[in-house]
Every structure is written in C-alpha cells, then in structure tokens.
Design the sequence.
C-alpha cells in the first residue's frame, strides 16, 4: 500500500520523537507497518508518501533513476532570470554533515506565474515590510538534506516557506494539511510515471 500525506509544518517525517518539540507521524492515524518514503524536514510542508512496500525508497529516491519531485518555495525578493538559470544549471552548496562543497544536479527552476494563493501557515512566516517575497518552482531529481533551502540561499534568496507539490506526476492536489489517503492504481501510475 502507498499512502499520500499532506505533511504540515512542524511535523517530523518519522514516527519516533527525537527529543525536540516537533510532532511526529504517530499522531495521524496511519496503519501499522508503514514507513515514510524519503522525508521532508520539520520546517517543510507538502506531499510525503508512506508505504509498507520494501524497495520503494530506492526506486523513488535514488538519483540514478531521475525521479522528479516538484517544490514551491516562497523566497525573499524576486529572483532574476540569471539567478534562476544558476539554480537550473546546478549550484555549489555546502554539505551540512561534512562541511564540503557539493554541486547539485541540473534541475528546473522558474518563477510561478501567476503567483499562487496559498493559505497562511501556522505559525506565519517571517515578514519584512521592506523586502518583497515571491514563489518559485523547482523540480529536482535528487534530495540532499535541506537542498532547496540551501540552493535558494546560495543565490541570495532565502526560503521562507517550502511545499512539496508533487512526486512523479502525482500531485498533492486537494489533500488537506494533516490528512492522508490511500493511493489507488491510477495514483500509483502517476507516482512512478516520469515527467
């Protein structure tokens, strides 16, 4: 079985507490023996898949398979075309575990037009009256730790809010924050279909 969950802000992508004040997946009524496929950090929101099927982690997350994941990032200021091209070409970011620089794989990066009307987050993002913000789209085929946040920071546009919108061709869609549903055969086809 595969479950599609709209992970809220402040929730860990794990069932066990880690000693922080963050909530865990244990409070959302998932069936026994499912585990998250990949993760979203506690500060990120959006589509998280869970499954009881062994081997899906590798099939969906190993960069050699080039499985796309789309994100919407609300960033400070409005990136130029040149800044978005830098993201798309691959950018050097620091690996938080080793302190070494690593280059991201080429990706798609674009300004969302029109800008989406996303309900406010609880708690709200940091707002600076003198600094505009905007939403950008990113489509990645890899998932380094806090990658989108480190990528946007590297081009001078820190991420204020991050939502994973799709995995493969499967969209978060109308799944409300904090709720989940079981994926049917059509959904599975969308998850595993390449964009």
Sequence:
């Amino acid at each position: 079985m595969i479950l599609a969950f709209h992970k809220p802000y402040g929730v860990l992508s794990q069932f066990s507490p880690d000693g922080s004040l963050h909530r865990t997946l244990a409070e959302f009524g998932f069936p026994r023996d499912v585990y998250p496929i990949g993760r979203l950090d506690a500060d990120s929101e959006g589509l998280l898949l869970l499954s009881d099927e062994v081997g899906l982690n590798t099939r969906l997350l190993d960069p050699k398979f080039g499985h796309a994941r789309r994100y919407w990032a609300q960033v400070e200021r409005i990136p130029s075309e040149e800044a978005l091209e830098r993201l798309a070409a691959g950018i050097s970011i620091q690996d938080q575990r080793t302190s070494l620089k690593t280059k991201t794989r080429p990706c798609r990066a674009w300004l969302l037009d029109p800008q989406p009307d996303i309900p406010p987050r609880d708690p709200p993002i940091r707002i600076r009256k003198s600094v505009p913000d905007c939403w950008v789209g990113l489509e990645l085929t890899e998932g380094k730790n806090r990658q989108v946040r480190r990528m946007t920071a590297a081009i001078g546009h820190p991420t204020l809010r991050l939502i994973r919108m799709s995995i493969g061709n499967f969209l978060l869609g109308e799944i409300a924050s904090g709720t989940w549903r079981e994926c049917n055969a059509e959904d599975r086809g969308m998850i595993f279909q390449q964009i």
